[in-house]
Amino acid sequence: MAAAEASIFSGSGDNSVWTDVSPLLQAACNGLQDGELIHGDNFNLYAAMSALEIMDPKMDSGMIGRYYSVDEAIDGGAAPIPISFDRTVDVQCTIDIMDHLLACEATWHKGHSLAQTVFSCIYLLRPERTTSHALLHSYSSVIRATCKAVISVVSDARTHEEEDLFTMMYGLNLNGEDEKCLSILNAVEETISRQLRACRALSARRKVLEDIEPLQNNPMLEEGYCRAILARLRFRKHFYHVLMCLKRPQGRGLQLARKHVASCISELKAIRELSGQHTACGGQTISEDRTTASGRQPVGFDASLNARLSAPTPPRSIKILSWSEFQKSQPDLVARAHLQRLLLQDGKLFGREAIFSVISKAATLPEVVKNHDIEKMECVIQLGQLVINLLRILCANSAWQRRKLGKILQDWRVTYIQLELALRSKFGEPSGTPSGENICMNILKQLLVWVEEKVYWIASRFLMLGFELELYSTSEYGMVYWYIYVVSVKLVEKLHHRISISNRGKRVKCRGKKKRVPGKDATRDIQFSPTVLFLQSHICLAEGLTMMLAALRNEKMILESPTPFNSDQERFFQHFELLQKAGIPDHNSYQSFEGSTKNASLSMLAMYNHFKDAQRIAKEVKSSFSDDPERLSELRRIEQVAEHNSVALSLLCRVGDALDSSLKLSFEFSHHPHFATAVVRRS
Questions:
Q1: Which of 305, 236, 240, 247 is nearest to 271 (CA)?
Q2: CB atoms within 10 A of CB 30
Q3: pTM surpassing 0.90?
Q4: Percent of the chain with pLDDT over 70
Q5: Which of 366, 450, 462 is nearest to 409 (CA)?
Q6: Alpha-carbon dihedral of residues 624, 627, 632, 634, nearest 10 degrees?
Q7: Cis before residue 585, ω within 30 degrees of 0?
Q8: Which residues partner with 663 through β-bridges?
């Protein structure tokens, strides 16, 4: 090893030269045992967490790819202008660049580095080189302007805290003539539109009114290529318009933004339909992982060029999203940033409506609330800030949402207690107070009910998100569904109470001096609203799953993995610690869960099938939400889970203790993200 070390220092000062350290590293490796590492005297655990593995492309930012710099890549022909002297090939390659840039942009929106996604395109790193290529230059210009607009809105909304790499530009220059990017794009679009019209005129043997040079050399491909490029240019134009419209204050550009979004979807559909017209030659099968319509690798991309820009952070290994991975149900960081910015402007909803007005509508407070100074009470002002924070939290991703919801539960609980104390200190006992004060007291009571309802809604959301984030093991599903059931019961109770108060107020106002019909109003009061029944279907599912899992555990039909590190009671506390600290619900403990599930059995479940109740309620309440597609979709999912679990329960009841080893029972989330479906398969 000493000889290897001596060979390294082959120069000093200005005459020093680089020497291969591989012999030294190899010698060091030979002398190390498993788990050992070479370190200095000041090396500690914190430094170990930040250590880099030399020569690992995922860790060592000094690892060089094919080129050392952008200029070297350009000199090496990595990003030629023109791309090809064959105009047909040039158009094909330009379309591939457009497609791959879109895939890179979608990957960036998922939270990856801008330098290693969108700006892995060498043409974007040297925009002055593309001026002679009108098509590529127009597309590149609008891409740069789009990136700048996206970074601006995400920074303003502060949603980039979820993924701090998103807004880091690593010295990349995004400054340009943003206002001119659309005019450049429109000019190119108009040229290609004329080329398309000329092509169609020739194919129909009509006279061409103007002398237009075709897009490329192959007449048979002209129309397809013109349409393919127009779809891509128009998508970029409409997407940029979406960003600009959403920037308008007080949501004034929302309706126009929706129209542009519809146009974006239409153009994407056209791109997919036209993708088969310029696929890779030779009848090759195109991979599902493709990032271009043709399936070819695009020209002019090298992610390793910008890898060292992320130092001292190790460069990430990034897989660019394929076309099939673009459409996902969960909105990404950019969409949620726009949502937050749209909802909250200057501390008001849409920049127009005061938060107390929003609370008044949500809590269905009477209109006379405007005549009182309730909104000036300190606890009500604090409630308004909690509502603003809640709206911001709901614009975060699932992981951040759950973390923040758990933290603000106690704040909402404290505000509820403060409101309750303010009510008692101001009015004391309800009896004997003047009628004017009674109105104010009733408003505070109704507000109190709404706050408690929101507390249970936040708790329910907190528990549900745990399934999306896969925080629960199968053996813990029973206790989680039991807690969801208990919380949901309280939520429905508060919701029904608030709706009943609101309905009574409306009937009193409409009835005026009319004579009261004995028994008539009482009959109306016990009717449940569609919203309450909607939540009741969730309660039936949660209760059914709780008892099914408990029965299977009690009758030894599912094997629970041993937990050497903690008991069921400890895991109960770990999962629900934040709820327990906030007293949600009151007097709720592991002993309560154990006591309510220890006698569960399949025979008892066969007599009272909670899943059939959920299915029945979901079917009955559907008609009340005919104009609400989201709730209709949720009710269909509830029906599916209830139906499949009811069938599985019937099968398990028939099999009973005779469940042989060939039958495997599992719980899957194939129909609903939060409510599991029992699946019985024969192995």
A1: 236
A2: 8
A3: no
A4: 82
A5: 462
A6: -110
A7: yes
A8: 682
